[in-house]
Amino acid sequence: MATPQESSQKSTETNGVKTADGSTISGNAAQLTNGDNTRPAAAPGPQPEAESAAATEGTEASVRSSGAELKKKAKEAKAARRAQEKQEKPQTKPPAILPDLKNPRKVETLEESGQRGSAGAPLGTPVTKKNHKPTGSLQKSMPLRQAPPQTTTPTIQPKKDNKNVALFEHLYGLPRRITIAAAGKDVHPAILALGLQMSNYVICGSNARCVATLMVLKRVIESYVTPPQNSLPRHLTSHLSPQIEYLVSCRPLSVSMGNAIRWLKLEINDVDPDTEESKAKAKLCEGIDNFIRERITVADQVISNSAAEKIQNGDVILTFAKSSIVEKTLVEAYRKGTRFRVIVVDSRPLFEGRNLALALANLGLEVQYTLTHAIDHVMKDATKVFLGAHAMMSNGRLFSRIGTAIVAMMAKESDVPVIVCCESIKFTDKVALDSIVSNEVAPPDELIIQGESTTALSSWRDSPNLQLLNLMYDVTPADYINMVVTEYGSLPPSSVPVVYRLSTNG
Asked: What does the alpha-carbon distance between residue 206 and residue 426 come to, in Å, rounded to a whole number?
């Protein structure tokens, strides 16, 4: 009969394996017990494989532990070398460096920033803030000083006052060109000179500008050379485009200039491509001379002779500003022996009537000169009103120098006949109901009296809510016009479309 101790030993031998250190390996639980450590044991099976796996795991753990120890030893050796190098260097203290006032965080010394010596740099060494973020122990041992917040008051720019009149905003384009700067390389020198003359009113008036433009385009054609692989009819038209664009930048084209340029382009398109270049250019130049002679020179002679017959002895002729055809009419009537008196009404800023009054006075006529504010007074003495034209619209309205409509209205109120002298080249198929939709805005500084720096308008650009408007033309209703004298005869304003068709189709 077995004792309790022997029974327990047999039970242990039956349920598990007793090892040398007193631990028991159970076949069912497969656990290894050694004090406080409990490790899962391999299931019963071939023991060599389990032993090799355990050996491999132990080797890897020892390798990992040895690698960490090597890194630790390398760091300690590096720190020792740095400490030895610091001790060997002389401890000289450089002068303190003041921080930049504009950027206080840019430069600072280790003395000012506290205990910076532990970071590895000598005391007093300037430290420059870098863009990258410091890492590791450097970030903790060398904190950068925070700059005080700078409160800058933003400068409020005053709102620029718009000096353009809102009602005529569509008429404001690029500023009028007054120099040849930035002109295209293809622009002819004669075009450059003509543009400046028209911009400065050296050449003024529809007829004068039209004749000058045609004469300059004639010079452009004479100096033109057709490029290779091109024909004159096709390339010459494109060659004239930059010339015309430059003239427009100096001052907008008049109606007569537009009609003349359109006629010239049609003549160029009608040139036979097989025609020799010299003959084609000679034909175009001859056509320009004939156009000026027939449509302007001869037309002015016919109109002046016809209108002069309507002036009688004792008449008082009132005219506004200066018109070349009206001047020729008055001179022609005086040369025929008619004795009459002339009243010239003028207006700012161009004062064109001064030249007309001086020319007539030198010729021997009796001339009275006044401004628009005295129209009501001088209209009582007038018997006829002669007006020039910038253009005659298709609805019979007169498009002329600003102030013409006031003169015609006062003449209508005083029952004085209004006679308009106009060449057919100034007729257009456009319709004008007012002077707002289509007009020319001149530089507003022309309204300031030249040489006067103490006037109310001398500093108008600095005065808020002050705008200057300098329009060039106005529209006179057809009801205020009694007769239009052209080279086709004297006719009412309603016949303008008929004359326009005759002049363009003829």
From this structure: 8
Which residues have a Cβ under 8 Å from the Cβ of 423 and sit 6 or more positions away? 207, 256, 295, 296, 299, 300, 303, 325, 486, 487
Pick from 253, 181, 246: nearest CA to 220: 246
Q: Which helix (H) or strand (E) holds 244?
A: helix 232-250
Asked if residue 264 lies in contact with residue 217, where contact means CB atoms within 8 angstroms, the answer is yes
Which tokens sit at 145?
A: 């000083």
Cα–Cα distance measured from residue 98 to residue 96, given in angstroms and rounded to the nearest whole number: 6
Residue in the structure block whose two tokens are 């304003």: 493
Would you tell me the crossing angle of helices 277-292 and 206-222 to the nearest 10 degrees? 170
Tokens of 356: 């007309």
Residue type, 483: M
Neighbouring C-beta atoms of residue 447, cutoff 10 Å:
14
Dihedral sign for Cα 488, 493, 495, 498, please.
Answer: positive
The β-bridge partners of 128 are 107
Contacts of 430 (CB under 8 A, 6+ apart): 393, 394, 438
Reported as a single tens digit per residue, the pLDDT across 339-394 is: 999 999 999 888 999 999 999 999 999 999 999 999 999 999 999 999 999 999 99
| pTM above threshold 0.70 | no
